[in-house]
Amino acid sequence: xxxxxxxSAGPAVLPEEVLKEAADEMLDYQGTGMSVMEMSHRSKAYDxxxxxxxxxxxxxxxxxxxxxxxxLQGGASQQFAMIPMNLMKNKKAAYIVTGQWAKKAYQxxxxxxxxxxxxxxxxxxxxxxxxCSDLDIPEDADYVYICENNTIYxxxxxxxxxxxxxxxxxxxxxxxxxxPVDVSKYGIIYGGVQxxxxxxxxxxxxxxxxxxxxxxLPGTPTMLQYKIHADAQxxxxxPPAYGIYICGKVFKWLKKQGGLAAMKEYNEKKAKxxxxxxxxxxxxKGTVVEKDRSLMNVPFVTGNEELDAKFVAEAKEAGFENLKxxxxxxxxxxxxxxxxxxxxxxxxVEFMKxxxxxxx
Length: 360
Ligand SMILES: *Cc1c(COP(=O)(O)O)cnc(C)c1O
Known about the structure:
The longest helix has 22 residues, at 259-280. By secondary structure, the chain is an alpha/beta fold. It has a seven-stranded mixed β-sheet. Strands 11-12-14 form a three-stranded antiparallel β-sheet. A hairpin with a 4-residue loop joins strand 6 (149-150) and strand 7 (155-156). It has nine helices and 14 strands. It folds into two domains: 30-256, 3-Layer(aba) Sandwich (Aspartate Aminotransferase, domain 2); 259-358, Aspartate Aminotransferase, domain 1. Residues 10, 75-77, 101, 147, 151, 171, 173-174, 192, 195 line the site of pyridoxal-5'-phosphate (PLP).
């Protein structure tokens, strides 16, 4: 067996320890004589799996009691509709458009009400986070929406926008559990888990209780109502049971690493190695304004498309996978999520130095 260094933006690298544990339990989960995949979601064994996952996540993020944790399906993209359907009481919401995912959410919301674009960084290919300290937020906006870490462009909100008292809704798919957060500043925090937590198929929604109501837009499907899932503790129908089990293992792994403060320190250390190299390189350069750089997704270019392609191909040969940038931006992107070991980043930088020397 040989494992590569996987820099994929998602689905992405998972802790090896977690994968091994899951492999050990594949045929017989803790004496039940069956795999978690074969288990009723209403069984005692599964009830413990999902309850432990929730309580470990609550510990990790220090989630206040007046927030519900929901394990849902449909990916982060389903939330683009679910959020306006459940929250747009005044049929108006403010969107900050800092990348493709935020733009998709903004476009989807237009189906359900008036989505007002209050800020954007599209003028410079989403390479920065706009100043959000004094935005023109409509009086009757039901919420302010952000994508906190922009997976494709490699930018991150280092400071939350001033929402002028409105509810903040954040897509944190690609920075989930990468550092501590103050949950009480948000109405909803949500993310697909396949970037930084687990296998594709699970989306986690952390939602303040007062936002969970029966008063949703007419025609909202049962499955798209937060209240239905909250009342049933994520077991209204069959949940993505195996995915939640793996997420639970990752939560335990994170606790063992020292929790989110320790993860932040580790992630900063990893990202610094790569950014420091990019800042002095004569061949490679980062594409993001320094103050807005993401700790998770690091896009870079050589300035020459052929050389970019050569780099990606040679890197793959050397065991560094999925370094090609998103199809809409080109160049390269290294996603260095929680589970990417520091050696992976060190070795990548060594490889980049060698490539630079050979391609002067
Ligand atoms: C990947 C991603 C999405 C889309 O996730 P799906 O689960 O494929 O719907 C949305 N937002 C962000 C920030 C992402 O990185």
